[in-house]
Each structure stands twice: as C-alpha cells, then as structure tokens.
Write a structure and sequence with these properties.
The chain is of the alpha+beta class. The chain has one domain: SH3 type barrels, CATH 2.30.30. About 20% of the residues lie in helices and about 35% in strands. A 7-stranded antiparallel sheet has the order 4-5-6-3-2-1-7. A hairpin with a 5-residue loop joins strand 1 and strand 2. The longest helix has 13 residues. The chain is globular. The protein starts with a strand and ends with a helix.
Length: about 130
Amino acid sequence: MRKGSILFHPSFEFTNGETGRKYLIILNTPNIKKSGPFLFCKTTSQPQNKPQTPGCHAEKNLYCINAKYDFFPKKTWVQFFEMFEVNYDKFIKQHFELGLEVKGELKTETINAMINCIKKSDDVSAYHLSLLN
C-alpha cells in the first residue's frame, strides 16, 4: 500500500460515530522504519452542493474525478477537509481484522494533482502537509 492506493473500508467510523462503507485514498507512502503514519482521505459520489468541474477545488477542500477516468465508475469527490492518519501496525491490523481491501490505484498524474490541490488549501495543517510525499 502506497500513495495513490484506493482502499475499501466496509465499516469506516465517521466523526459523528456512525459507520458505513467508504472508499479511502492513501495520500503518502510512509517511512515504515521511522514508523510514519499513513495519511488518507475519504471520497464521496454524492453530488449535492459540489462543483461539477473535474480537478482541484482547494477553496472547498475537494478534488473532483470524472466517472470512469480513474478507477471510480461514478463522478467522485475526494474530500480533504478532514484527513485521517493511522500508524502502520494499526493499519495492517485493520486490513486483516476489518477486511480493509486495496481496490485499485490512482494514476500517478491524478494523485500528484490531488496532492498539489491539497497543498493549496488553507485548511490543511502543516503537520499533514509534512506527511505528503
């Protein structure tokens, strides 16, 4: 698992305490020797109040991917207003215990454009920016 990997989490816990099925995208390739965390963000295919133009929408903390352009069958928005990190050991544990599955990988150009978009956001912490590679 590395930067650009698309994961399917069958019981992702949202900040409101609810759980649901969710696609996640890994934003970095952590340095395992230094026990660096995986950084990832959620996706959604729900179009309400979201820009329809593909690409970067840093002011809204979104990156839009057109349907069938890169893995996703529906138009998908990568949401980076909320990022998540998890250490390697916990990540591997979730992979085996919860059925966290690697479903695909974004094209290099897509993940790089997404990371450049994240770097333009005023809402991403300096710490999270330091984890991007």
